[in-house]
Amino acid sequence: MTNLKVETREKLKTVSTATLATALFKRGLRNQMIQDVRPLNPGDVSMVGEAYTLRYMPAREDLNPISVFQDRGHPQRKAVEEYPEGAVLVIDSRKDARAASAGSILVSRLMKRGVAGIVTDGGFRDSADIAKLAIPAFHNRPSAPTNLTLHQAIDINVPIGCGDAPVFPGDVVVGDGDGVIVIPAHLADEIADEAVEMTAFEDFVTEQVMEGRSILGLYPATEERTRTDFAAWRKATNR
Amino acid sequence: MTNLKVETREKLKTVSTATLATALFKRGLRNQMIQDVRPLNPGDVSMVGEAYTLRYMPAREDLNPISVFQDRGHPQRKAVEEYPEGAVLVIDSRKDARAASAGSILVSRLMKRGVAGIVTDGGFRDSADIAKLAIPAFHNRPSAPTNLTLHQAIDINVPIGCGDAPVFPGDVVVGDGDGVIVIPAHLADEIADEAVEMTAFEDFVTEQVMEGRSILGLYPATEERTRTDFAAWRKATNR
Amino acid sequence: MTNLKVETREKLKTVSTATLATALFKRGLRNQMIQDVRPLNPGDVSMVGEAYTLRYMPAREDLNPISVFQDRGHPQRKAVEEYPEGAVLVIDSRKDARAASAGSILVSRLMKRGVAGIVTDGGFRDSADIAKLAIPAFHNRPSAPTNLTLHQAIDINVPIGCGDAPVFPGDVVVGDGDGVIVIPAHLADEIADEAVEMTAFEDFVTEQVMEGRSILGLYPATEERTRTDFAAWRKATNR
Amino acid sequence: MTNLKVETREKLKTVSTATLATALFKRGLRNQMIQDVRPLNPGDVSMVGEAYTLRYMPAREDLNPISVFQDRGHPQRKAVEEYPEGAVLVIDSRKDARAASAGSILVSRLMKRGVAGIVTDGGFRDSADIAKLAIPAFHNRPSAPTNLTLHQAIDINVPIGCGDAPVFPGDVVVGDGDGVIVIPAHLADEIADEAVEMTAFEDFVTEQVMEGRSILGLYPATEERTRTDFAAWRKATNR
Amino acid sequence: MTNLKVETREKLKTVSTATLATALFKRGLRNQMIQDVRPLNPGDVSMVGEAYTLRYMPAREDLNPISVFQDRGHPQRKAVEEYPEGAVLVIDSRKDARAASAGSILVSRLMKRGVAGIVTDGGFRDSADIAKLAIPAFHNRPSAPTNLTLHQAIDINVPIGCGDAPVFPGDVVVGDGDGVIVIPAHLADEIADEAVEMTAFEDFVTEQVMEGRSILGLYPATEERTRTDFAAWRKATNR
Amino acid sequence: MTNLKVETREKLKTVSTATLATALFKRGLRNQMIQDVRPLNPGDVSMVGEAYTLRYMPAREDLNPISVFQDRGHPQRKAVEEYPEGAVLVIDSRKDARAASAGSILVSRLMKRGVAGIVTDGGFRDSADIAKLAIPAFHNRPSAPTNLTLHQAIDINVPIGCGDAPVFPGDVVVGDGDGVIVIPAHLADEIADEAVEMTAFEDFVTEQVMEGRSILGLYPATEERTRTDFAAWRKATNR
User: Fold this and answer.
1) A175: which of A51, D107, F147, F174 lies 20 to 30 Å off by Cα?
2) What is the pLDDT of residue D44?
3) Are chains C and B in contact at 3+ CB pairs closer than 8 Å?
């Protein structure tokens, strides 16, 4: 879990999931967005980290009494304590938000342990409390019932699906107001570089558009003038 | 509708739907959460009251012209005027939010009459106005079309389903940021007591976690030290 | 696109989609609400304009490489530059929010060009940025992937479906906190007039209800007293 | 339950749900089809009878142990024994087929008691056995779990929704290969008459089309020749 | 509409949609299957033809009274009479089967006019009758209500979506027991050739498997022996 | 995989999934039915065997070119060749039938190798061919696209979810016309015994009902006479 370079992490903090999705699309990767999750946190959210996964399967009643958490080796609790600093916990809840994937106490512990964020394609309980924590959290919708009602934690750090996206441990996970995207580990550096470049151009375009310029020739940069203007802008803005 | 004790109501105002869901789960009740509803009101929401129900069926066009509301005995309007103070109106809209379950005028009247809240598994119209009222309201999503488009009020205060949960008149309904849960009437007192106890422990655990303590042995309290610390905390905090 | 009278536009800015839905319902039009879309913008939103449409079909991979936008005649980019001032861009995204319908740069350009709003039954990317723009935008949910992933713009200004509602170019589109409704062009003036009248009465009723009056006889106005009181209120409030 | 005239029943046995849907559409009734149900029986199915309803609500675990059927007054069992001859049992299962609405023993008893059919917007268990019985049965899909898992029978012969259609006790229910439609009781005679007329014309048109005639002018009968030919056909075929 | 070569059509009649899907997948086309449609016809179904499309939009009540079919120029009726021999009518019903896309009379007329098949991502009425006709028909499920209830035919032979697949007029449409697939027009010949080759190999493999041979080395043909055996089999079976 | 006793297997072949579901319900197991799957095979289907599982995750395009099957160690191909005789292959396809879980060649090989059946909560390709094989197969619906389009086989014989049911390797899986149910391994013998007893009683009840007897007192057997008659029937029928 030390594969994510500090500079790559820093670059990824400055770009959007939309820009990353386009960079991945150019490489033939069309399904890397974790579909239909949103941040609980108010304001501008930014999350970057390597994926550390937790797989849930449907709960069988006799195996999931309230007493299971007495077991220190229970995968959900184990994950919370073993999760490495800087990682993002991604939970495969089979897109089922009828019971919680986790609650505020576990998320608080993750925050204290320095994890970079938490994502489920199900829902969190105590969602109003989680929203106030200084850790990015993404889910489908709030859900109060204990996870034991429908989910049994069965595997730690195996490849999973989350919101119809493939997630391999070590993939780089980025989240913002649009949701969460998964960058295959081996592409993280080059995607980060490319996204930073793309973001510079998009910021330039946005400025131009705000000044009233037409999109034609500007976005994409099919006119020579656009390229010249952009070069000047980069020099002027030091980007 | 005077079965809910004042002290039980007060206790329930201090606990979360997540805690209540766990207390019900321990008793084998796994489906008491009204699924996929959320508060319209901003900020921290807290709703407690006995269920008073309204059942909608699919509207047949010839029976639901705009003129039906001329009838003072129309079940929807009747419910609004007869609803007892302190109760929560729970509407079975068959999880269909394509037309409204009610609008701001009716919800305003309910507020003035002292009802404790309103819940539908469909949607409200005038949702921005309702969000500003001093009455908790929960729905699936905003929906502008008049209820006559798809819903006919057919029964008052019968057992219903709401968001896949069973709701009997007189059940105790509690709502917060995670949604709405239904406590069977005969369990309300004991569940309230147990939830207050659980909440004290959860507050203690949260404090400990925020100070950096591991979850193992703490939550659940499998270590003797946890039990000792909690006893001391209760004394110190007077809980 | 100059058919919408200035005074009709002004009237429609003062009424809600809920009131408009009822006025349309009275004329047998029951499906004019664009289902399941919501404003990105915070606070009170109000959008009025004539529909200018964009039809998306499912993207075929070989026809939708990233390079298609090099073409100045691409329907999506063309729409953005040709869209008339005061119009509302309505996009038929086949209720598929798994890829974006548009992003902040195009929406910014629309804003600068003076369009009155933008609606999709899919999702927008850069949703946090769009939320800050001074142009009403409505979608189902945020979606980061480029539209090329799933959507190909194929037609400009043809009749479309959007959120299960029929939308003809020139229909008058109104949006607020409850979502977006479509008024057939030929009914716009009379519906606007009627909705203004209805709104006056609803405002009167709301005031009365807030003062503690019962709904029976008041809403609808089946009692003579209600009609007298309303007449007095109109005189007093100059409405 | 003796309001359905023998001759109306006989007429309705000769017409299709498609024809009936059109006749109802002409009267402004657009939602009378029970959506997404299909016959279990192989071959050509025809079911006609007055609706006798059963309403299910979500099951609460403590109220639905296996022992509830020991009670002779249990609404589900009561319905089976009280259901009048010639009626159609329509069950509101809230479109939830995850647990059964009924099984082959109850359906066999209904058959023996002379009921005309059974419909649920959920599913039947023992579906292969029911398919072999001489009673039309319609559901969404097979479902083995006992109804107690998710459904509690709560009301007999009240107005219900079934597959999004409104069903009032006494409405006339007709089923065939396309599914099940509900005719409001007061319209049954006139709809039956009109549908018989429409069916004669459709049979004539089908014959003509099979002989190679164009649809234009024929269907609908906008050409004088069509009307003359149809009159001759009726005389010739004695219809 | 005479672009589909006779020999290509004949080849496509001998291969499955599964084999075609793999051939398209190899070319990066992953979404050409019309999702979730099935044949009405019993037994082995085979349909091949060029796409001729019909686009439906949501019906507005005032534009879709029963009298609209009096108009000979109505797009639905026009399509039925203009549809070229050998073509496949593909209807974009927006995946909405709550009302019919067409009924047995129109399908009969299409059959008599020599069209090769009909596909909708909605449903057909008179489905039991259509099942008996000698024309392949594919839909999602039976649906009795007249199309006017929810669908307005608005365009003939424009690019559409059907079951989430892109369909351009002239694309080659193939259907069998697994459903319906769309081959881009320019690829039809080469895909047909490749699929015939693949089918020969799959038939050989099936024979081998039925004789007890392991799949490893056989499918795919990673062993030299497989290639030799296949060559011998082709010679022996004249394929 | 030799834990399933021959006599338990034989008993389970004589009972229905409906009866098994009730026996499991009595033990508090309410979610053992694999939801929304059906047999491809015509006629009466009966499948019994121990679960051997295959887990699919969402396919990432770069990891799933057509060439992956060249690898003999590919989990899907490996499963097919390693699957033990008498077992039932249960595939977790995440309820996604948009691409195939397997096709006729692999299913043929499984049949030849003596496996007892195959189940997916997705779909099979070549479904018409599979329907003709002498091996029970259950899926949600036919699906032609190669599994590589959406599914990557990632794990063999781990605990999975299938159709919302928990499936552990070694659980006993039973399928019939109503679908597929999962019996926890440790309960298989006692559930089989109980289900055989229940089936005897249900057969007796069915006979009585067919002779015109009322359900009251008979089913359940609350009358003494029922118990006496059943005892006599068992003696007479040797059951």
Assistant:
1) F147
2) 86
3) yes
